Amino acid sequence: MGANDVSMIKAAHIGVGISGQEGMQAMLNSDFAFSQFCYLQRLLLVHGRWSYNRMCKFLSYFFYKNFVFTLVHFWYAFFNGFSAQAVYDTWFITCYNLIYTSLPVLGLSLFEQDVNETWSLHFPELYIPGQHNLYFNKKEFVKCLIHGIYSSFVLFFVPMGTIYNSERSDGKDISDIQTFCLIVQTSLIWMVTVQIALKTTYWTMISHFFIWGSLGFYFCILFFLYSDGLCLMFPSIFQFLGVARNTMNQSQIWLSLILSVILCVIPAFGYQFLQPLVWPVNVDKVFDRINHCKTRPPQVRVRTKLKHPSLRRSAYAFSHKQGFGALITSGKTTKTKPNKKNSFPVKK
Amino acid sequence: MNWGGGGRKLMPDNSAMKQQKLPAHQLHFSARVVLTIFFATGVFCFCMGVILILSAQSIQEIEVCPILLYLFFWYWGLNPGGDVYMYYKLYGFYQNHYRYVLSRSNNQLVGKDIMVRDVEDCAPFKVSQNKTPIAPCGAIANSMFNDTIILSYTLKSSVHIQVPMLKTELTWWTDKYVKFQNPSLINLSDRFVGTEKPPYWQAPIYELDTSDPGNNGFLNDDFIVWMRTAAFPTFKKLYRRLYRVQYFMDGLPAGNYSFNISYNFPVTRIKGEKSVVLSTLTWSGGSSLFLGLAYTVTGAFLWLASFALMAIHMTMKKKKLSYRR
């Protein structure tokens, strides 16, 4: 498109430039540029839709994991004299968002696909949630918040109940604050890992590596930070000497962890199963049809690109100003074509 | 104007990663898988809960609240076989308060920096009134539990024997042998020259147990147990273990017992309470029923939920099929 369209591209939310005969300015100023108008279909229906999906999953997961992480302190305040004592080791607080949970969510937002490109093109109705802002709005945010509050409640009270009046199997101390911190931290990491594993529908090798690798990395760093060598070198900075070793060999700790994860994840899992059954939206019906088709032998006819020069219309310019779009797409501005004579000779 | 050769560089590579065509598995939970997961998890949780409850019920525990009584007689009707552990339990003592938890010097406790030169967290228990450093510094050490509890068994009508108790191996191995170290193994009192005892203590740190150098100074078991701050305001800490000799080979026999307690630790000032607990143990720890009950309830709930979900799924499937027709 021409140089006079540059301001329109810049003003739009997403500017698309088509490179062609009229110069490079439009293309250079656009967010996306390609060479043919028909590629717009893929941009919208495949990549745009995937991008919206990924963004919404990323946002709701990110808010959720930080709600759980932070709200545990709200419950603990009632038990520590409201003195703002943290429920986690300070090093865990530093590493949580940066190291332990950053890669899985990055993998989710780069690679996630709910349906593959063939189905995306075949069912344009799947684009509707993006237009109506269905996947992340105030209601979804509130759902995320409620799930976070409930998870933080479980994450605090299950470990508390486990160690409250308890000892180790050899009679020694288990209800100290460092053990409690360790249990809550580990339960939290497991919980958010399982949650993102459930949210990820498209499992590449990279997703496996990011998700399970982050979990394993957490344990490696845990044993490193709580090791004798490091804690003896800097006793006032690394204070959790021996906590991991002394706690991880107690069965009640692992049982408490398993229970916390089950209690947090199962409601979300059940809701994910129930919602398309009992309160389906239009998109769920499409997914249903897709799953139905997948179980049958593939008979999908993908629309092939037919290029009839006679059907090609002149280029559209979609204006960013309200009002003209409806006029242009109504078709009233295009010339009506006279009826073509049948070009094939008829045998008489 | 055409692109020419330079335009090719703008195109992304045709690799699987950049074209979003990585080999992958599309995860989709069918109804059968979801219901199986619910059912199996329910069964697992229920069984686990029953096992934990049975294990917790097998513990025998007795709690005695000797408030302002120096001597307390009671009849132990049960006969707990095996190891018996004696704990002191405190109510309303906030060892998890933010400022309290900070108030220690790990450098000092590991034997490196007895004079506590660069730690401000111990204030106001860092230096005494005449500016000598306190060893061990901090509020945690200062508030150490200092009651003495002696358990006696009535052998015959007027013969009371003291139940033999062990005062070592009460702590985590890593605490005793790595985290807490004395500045030297011999002549402990010389190494602590230039320091003072904390204000609330009766004896200095190197006189906590003069009979056993492995239990003296920073290595004293009672001290280490106290320094492992509790997570909640109600907690119990291991005080002594039964020494299974003579009459107590199989634990505490049935009979009359009494406590002789020197009441030093002031709980009434902080509106708290204290008590003594005698308890046996099991593989799952203490006598708390919480985990067992939580598992049982979760298991039962999941099991019921799996049936409910199955019912909903069948109803919806029938409806869908009837619509399709």
UniProtKB/TrEMBL annotation, chain B:
This is Cell cycle control protein. Keywords: Glycoprotein, Membrane, Transmembrane, Transmembrane helix. GO terms for cellular component: endoplasmic reticulum; Golgi apparatus; plasma membrane. The lineage of its organism: Eukaryota, Metazoa, Chordata, Craniata, Vertebrata. It is found in: Membrane. InterPro entries: CDC50/LEM3_fam. The chain crosses the membrane at residues 33-55, 67-88, 289-312. GO terms for biological process: phospholipid translocation. It holds the Pfam family CDC50. Belongs to the CDC50/LEM3 family. The keyword Flavoprotein does not apply.
